[in-house]
Design goal:
The structure holds two protein chains of two kinds. By secondary structure, chain A is mainly alpha-helical. Chain A has helices spanning about 1-15, 20-45, 55-70, 80-90, 90-95, 100-130, 140-165, 170, 175-190, 200-210, 215-225, 230-260. Chain B starts with a helix and ends in a 6-residue tail after the last helix. The chains are: A mainly alpha, B mainly alpha.
Amino acid sequence: MSLHVAVATRSFRRYSTYTAATLAGIFTNCVFGVINALVLIAVWKQNPDAGGYDVHDAVTYVWLGQAMIMVVAIWGGGSPTDLATRIKTGDVALDFYRPVGILGWYLAADLGRAVFHLISRGLVPTVVGALLFDLRYPAGPAVWLAFAVSVVLAVLVSFAIRFLVAMTAFWVLDDQGTQVLASTAAMFFSGLTVPLVLFPGWFGRLALALPWASYIQAPADLWLGKHAGWDAVGTLGLQLLWAAVLLGACAALLKVAERKVVVQGG
Amino acid sequence: MVEAVVRYTQIARLWVRASRAYPVSWAMLIVGGFLITGIDFVGIWILFQNVEHLGGFDLHEVAFLYGGTGVAFAVADLFAGRIERLGQMIRLGRLDQMLVRPVPLLVQVCADEFALRRVSRIAQAALVLGWACTHIEWTRSKVVLTVLMLVAATIIFVAVFVGLACIQFWTIDSAEVANAFTYGGNTITSYPLSIFPSELIKAMTFAVPLAFVNWYPSLHILGHPDPLGYPDWTQWLSPVIAVVVTAGALRVWQLGVRSYRSTGS
């Protein structure tokens, strides 16, 4: 356990080194936050209760979405990218020799990264959004707690998906293609492009049940108080279910991959 | 100029051959490129399931704006988008290698890792633009203006790519600042600017002239009055703006190259 904490702390420090890059990223998040907020304000001006949101919910949703982009690494990245690189170079063979589980090691590293991105790329744009727009805030400590748990589960689900995608490098050698397809699905079905509540009919219900809904829609709905009581428990339960299933899949696929790895002699 | 085009083509051809080494991944990247910009338009379509007009524009008209800026941005990205990796090239010392080669530096930087698969993004935007065009009543002046608009918009985006990437000569890690204007500019011009506060439209007219990418010409083509009441000739101004920003971007590039100091790695 202390080993994993150490891995996470070092990962945190690794990402916190690049101050200029972090500031540049925050700036870009804020620009997109303003653009998307203004677009949704125009939509809600004409349809004041679209998707069961009011205009304050919609604007808050936009800024929460910008805050979560890097925390759940919607465009890919984080420790699974390191794994993909090590698979391509063959260094992954060393990882299999180590007396520490690969999955736990990479998960710890990714959690360290996520904490850094939550503080920098998550918190700062939210504060900027709060200064520029009239946002809505969680009503009471129980809602805050539910939101916090939801964010942790969001990172777990996203880590598992990114890890599965990285592992495709064992079979296709160049994982760029699967990366692009995975981040497209993540962008769309997380609700980053458009809130999932605006998706029409059965398509919307399907999107809400998919694992990517954990990234933005689930934490945002908890923050906005759209789920209360057992409804909130159900939302967290679905996230937990996806996290467990996908992490299980990671462990299983890792076993298959271990048998597949061929170490070249010499 | 001719030499630059020849050299660019040579370097580009090398990279295309290299990318074919992984055919499965290459195919997925083409599909992915089509989808990743495609979902933006699906997003707009979903918005229109909840409203009938956006800033006084219907879905076909927004599709024209989206397709116009999308085609121009995708073409600019195909030919010059790699310049956003300038900081990385500096950090890895690759820019030093490029400086000693007998090929114009800007050509080498833009042609680096040329990815033909990006044509799928052009195709996606062109498809939407084509669909939007079937809903327009064409006159000769509208056709001329549409062609002028697409050419000028592409040049404006190339200039924005080049000009803003130059920031990385001074602060190497700041690639993302440029994204706010390139990708951000593409996103914001996908919508009718009439939904934004007038200060923002003015900023996009006089400060960072992205409104000339599609907004002003489209007002004429789609037959909408200018919400800010600017005279009609502003709708024909895009080519002039393209020339001006290109001159500006080249000037910044020269300044950047002159003040460039290797990182020593």
